[in-house]
């Protein structure tokens, strides 16, 4: 979508519990002292110490009052934007109290008046939008992006970390301060699981999402190791911060938190140059709420990024935008929330032909002829579980063919593999039903236990959002199991034993 987050395969390590609430805020008090004798020593490598000041971390009570006074003095985000070219708009910033009383409320964008579908809620000029074009300069973008070493998110995070070191001297100070307030928290005031502790990640036990989080964490770690190389390549960054070598200026945990904070608000614009495709829009996410069934998107138009509404709003209603066709697993990893009404939610079933099968190559050819791969991912979408089960059957039947003459018949025929024998069909359906039962048994709780957990108003917010995710996954898997069992019950002869399958396809 225009507002869609790009799920990157990059990620971070096991997060530290002590740092999960400081995405960008720990960077304000970082300073560097360069001796006059070294001002021209371009190749001098010099270690900058990063540390968190207590004044950087928002806490309850007095600290929140202090922040409010600072905002009164320097103006809030919207006031700063108006001073710097934002035309009159139809939205206001409002507060949303979070589950953690030690953290300040998060802001959200609401309608300032009654609005209709088709109204332009706001139009942010490009001068107030952060893009790679601004960060890296035209002359280095193509070279940087072809290295395949650093994602757009990492580049934007690195830029904001450098800008944050400038404190109030930075033009982007009000916007960075707003990101600090949000602290990478999603609509449920929950951070991405990329910032959860190991104990908190166990809330996702049984879900493939847990593995995805760990893989993305490793990806972010790899990106961190490439920061210095890209910094040298990016002339604009190198010239502006010649002594601030990234991995010396910023510890990995700081980069990880900044990366996740940027991930929670980057906008993917359509029909723009590569250098402007990924953008940070001060009135965009996370101030805007994501909704899977919404059609409104942030779009590039006439030197600005604007939001055209897809529905009417009453004054004070929170404004929502589309988050792209993303399953709940990606919504949780990218933004820290799960959408119960997500029409794009799905689970994946990976099936593979057995490479030990003497007829593997022939089966591989038949699979490709029918648009499938030797290792095939089947997306099981919510509400379409039965269709997905029917789609898997021809592929699984192919794996069960063992007689060479039978295989020749399959090769000479066109189209998907139809049922060949009662015993083979029973074996295929038994394997499929057993697979869904195994996946369901991998979760430590049942659907009924999930419902009981969610009924507890005092449930930890991270556990709540994780429970919502696994509950929705289990519903999809349970529906698939039910479909497989019904097909077994429809078999004409239940006395037939399943065919032996020395080279049955693999499911995971």
Automatic annotation (TrEMBL):
Residues 355-477 form the Rubisco LSMT substrate-binding domain. The keyword Methyltransferase applies. The keyword Transcription does not apply. GO terms for cellular component: chloroplast stroma. Keywords: Methyltransferase, S-adenosyl-L-methionine, Transferase. One of its GO terms (molecular function) is protein-lysine N-methyltransferase activity. GO terms for biological process: methylation. InterPro entries: Rubisco_LSMT_subst-bd, Rubisco_LSMT_subst-bd_sf, SET_dom_sf, SETD3_SETD6_MTase. Pfam families: Rubis-subs-bind. Gene3D superfamilies: Rubisco LSMT, substrate-binding domain (3.90.1420.10), set domain protein methyltransferase, domain 1 (3.90.1410.10). It comes from the Eukaryota. This is Rubisco LSMT substrate-binding domain-containing protein. It comes from Escallonia herrerae.
């Amino acid at each position: 979508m225009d507002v869609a987050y790009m799920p990157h395969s990059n990620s971070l390590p096991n997060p530290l519990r002590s740092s999960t609430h400081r995405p960008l805020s720990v960077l304000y008090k970082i300073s560097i002292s360069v001796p006059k004798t070294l001002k021209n020593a371009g190749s001098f490598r010099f270690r900058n110490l990063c540390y968190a000041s207590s004044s950087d971390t928002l806490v309850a009570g007095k600290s929140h009052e202090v922040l409010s006074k600072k905002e009164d003095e320097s103006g809030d985000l919207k006031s700063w934007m108006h001073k710097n070219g934002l035309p009159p708009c139809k939205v206001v910033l409002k507060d949303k109290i979070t589950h953690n009383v030690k953290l300040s409320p998060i802001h959200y964008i609401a309608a300032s008046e009654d609005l209709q579908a088709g109204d332009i809620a706001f139009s942010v000029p490009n001068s107030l939008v952060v893009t790679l074009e601004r960060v890296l300069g035209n002359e280095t973008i193509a070279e940087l992006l072809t290295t395949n070493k650093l994602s757009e998110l990492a580049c934007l995070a690195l830029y904001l970390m450098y800008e944050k070191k400038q404190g109030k001297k930075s033009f982007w100070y009000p916007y960075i301060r707003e990101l600090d307030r949000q602290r990478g928290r999603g609509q449920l005031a929950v951070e991405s699981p990329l910032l959860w502790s190991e104990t908190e990640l166990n809330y996702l036990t049984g879900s493939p999402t847990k593995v995805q989080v760990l893989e993305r964490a490793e990806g972010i770690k790899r990106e961190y190791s490439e920061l210095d190389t890209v910094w040298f390549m990016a002339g604009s960054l190198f010239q502006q911060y010649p002594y601030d070598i990234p991995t010396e200026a910023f510890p990995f945990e700081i980069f990880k938190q900044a990366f996740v904070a940027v991930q929670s608000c980057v906008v993917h614009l359509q029909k723009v140059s590569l250098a402007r495709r990924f953008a940070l829009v001060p009135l965009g996410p996370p101030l805007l709420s994501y909704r899977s069934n919404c059609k409104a998107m942030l779009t590039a138009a006439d030197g600005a990024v604007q939001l055209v509404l897809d529905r009417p709003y009453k004054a004070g209603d929170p404004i929502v935008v589309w988050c792209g066709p993303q399953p709940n697993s990606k919504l949780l990893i990218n933004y820290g929330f799960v959408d119960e009404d997500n029409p794009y939610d799905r689970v994946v079933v990976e099936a593979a032909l057995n490479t030990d099968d003497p007829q593997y190559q022939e089966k591989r050819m038949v699979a490709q002829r029918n648009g499938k791969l030797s290792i095939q991912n089947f997306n099981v979408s919510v509400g379409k579980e039965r269709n997905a089960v029917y789609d898997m059957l021809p592929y699984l039947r192919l794996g069960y063919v063992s007689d060479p003459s039978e295989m020749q018949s399959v090769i000479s025929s066109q189209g998907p593999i139809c049922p060949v024998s009662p015993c083979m069909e029973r074996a295929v359906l038994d394997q499929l039903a057993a697979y869904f039962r195994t996946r369901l048994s991998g979760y430590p709780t049942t659907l009924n236990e999930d419902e009981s957990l969610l009924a507890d108003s005092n449930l930890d917010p991270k556990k709540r959002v994780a429970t919502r995710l696994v509950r929705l996954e289990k519903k999809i898997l349970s529906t698939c199991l039910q479909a497989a069992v019904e097909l077994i019950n429809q078999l004409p002869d239940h006395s037939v034993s399943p065919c032996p399958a020395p080279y049955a396809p693999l499911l995971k």
